[in-house]
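Handout, section B. The chain below has 416 residues.
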Amino acid sequence: MTTRYEKLERIGKGGQGAVYRGREVTRLYEREVALKYMSVPEGGAAEVFQQNFKIEAQVCALLKHTNIVQLYGFDEDDEGPFLVFPLIESALPNNGPDLKKIIAVCGRLPEALAAFITHQVLLALDYAHVPGPSERRVSTLHRDISPDNILVDAQGEVKLADFGIARMYEEGVSQTQVLVGKIGYFSPERLALEDIDGRADVFALCAVLYEMLAGTRLFGTREDGSRLSEEATARQILRTPIVPPVERGLCSQAISDVCMAMLSKRVADRPTAARALALVRSTGVVPHNGQGRLLAWLQDGSKETRFITPPRVSETASMRPRSHGIGTAQIEGIRSVEDRRFPWGVMLVAMGVSMALALAFASTRLRSADSKTEALAEPVFVAPKFEAKKYEAPSDEPAVESEPRPQKPSGGRKTR
């Protein structure tokens, strides 16, 4: 069977299929791609895996988001059908791009970068959980959120991959008696075979967040790092109280509160992806240039958090058991996290306004002083003095000369 895709070496393998590096060759261009072939494990039902493979193709074809790995196409060769995805190159040399390998190589992630990765995946989940404008795209539940399926490419972009067991739903997904996926990231309602919705993905993502902060898995491991059986892992998720990460010195109080809300064992107390996205943003921990900082941290071999082993629960102080989650009132209390932080933005704006007013006042005073100086420097004009005269109106009649008045003789007799 002829195809334009050439299969090269295998670069990954999961429960639903194997991924190979490939090359797409056409008359116009040539590029490297990732080819995902369906694989049926021994004892597995081929029809179930074929159905999942078709669903993944349908889901990926409808989901168009920056933080979701896009589907290039679907083809078939002599070995069977396969999906074509872009080849995600890793920022770590000689390592894969998935978060599992990043944690294995680098250890714990800084709080800001862990919050950034969680924020980016929540963007993808919020998009997938909400129906699109097209009638064909309904709400989609991933059901396999884990470090294996969260990728960081060579540019520092975070992408969600592997919708192999995803389900499109309108109200809730009814589960069968067969659980598919990684049990260490299952929500309690999923283990109880109850109907699930997007909040099951939120629980799984927060388990990944806790793992990024601690460097080890939250569920399915003992204190010495050894793995638990699937049955013991299920009991741990259902019954064991979760220690807040702030009590282990892994993060700030704000991120710890959001983490405990997302890990609530009661579905009613757990936020949706949209609500969780708002809670993560409200902490103020997510950096604005998170993509660049994440890329720089991955490429910096001298980072302080490389190969740091987190403290064991038994070695930390104040390890008091907590409830299985926090209630709705406490979730609402997280809204005031930003209020408890010092209002630096308001203070800076007030300082800027004060400085502008001070400069305007000083400028006005300077202009006033300059005008006074100019007034003093000008010569003083003294008006000449004029003698006041009585104004006589002109007359058209000729002037009449008055006769001289007789004068009285002085000292003599009167003349008769």
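Note. The longest helix spans residues 344-377. Compare this with the example in section A.
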